[in-house]
Automatic annotation (TrEMBL):
Highest classification ranks of the organism: Bacteria, Bacillati, Actinomycetota, Actinomycetes, Micrococcales
Superkingdom, taxonomy of origin: Bacteria
Biological source species: Leifsonia poae
Signal peptide (from-to): none
Cofactor(s) needed for function: Zn(2+)
Subcellular location: Cytoplasm
Any one GO CC term of the record: cytoplasm
Quaternary structure (record): Homodimer.
Protein name per the record: tRNA-specific adenosine deaminase
UniProt keyword annotations, A-Z: Cytoplasm, Hydrolase, Metal-binding, Zinc
Major localisation: cytoplasm
Pathway annotation: Pyrimidine metabolism
GO molecular function, one term: metal ion binding
Amino acid sequence: MTTDAELLAVAAEEARIGAEEGGIPIGAALFTRDGRLLGRGHNRRVQDGDASMHAETNAFRAAGRQRSYRDTVMVTTLSPCWYCSGLVKQFGIGRVIVGDDQSFLGGQHWLAEHGVEVTVVNDPALIATMGAFIHDHPDLWNEDIGEE
């Protein structure tokens, strides 16, 4: 896989799986710069009862240890929250592809200010999926983003 759309399709599939499991429809995947998949995952906060199991965290854990993350790309269907932005910065992930920053805007600008290459796609289907979820499940969404 080499195009941003191909990489984002993997994360979108994870978001779909998460929704089918009754969770929050956010997916992510970690790739090498040349498109080799290292790990993929979806938000599993609801399914696992674990507040830290965001999509990016799940994908990162699935990738296992890497000698360096500088030449990796985190692809996520939704703008990474501050927690996941911290993960990207902490481990030096070099690039982030964001599928939707209209439904939620996390720390992507902060990442860009700190040298991470950030590409925003704003895919209409991902925006519609997340918008519908937020509308239909406001309590669960607010819990996910730490709002009262």
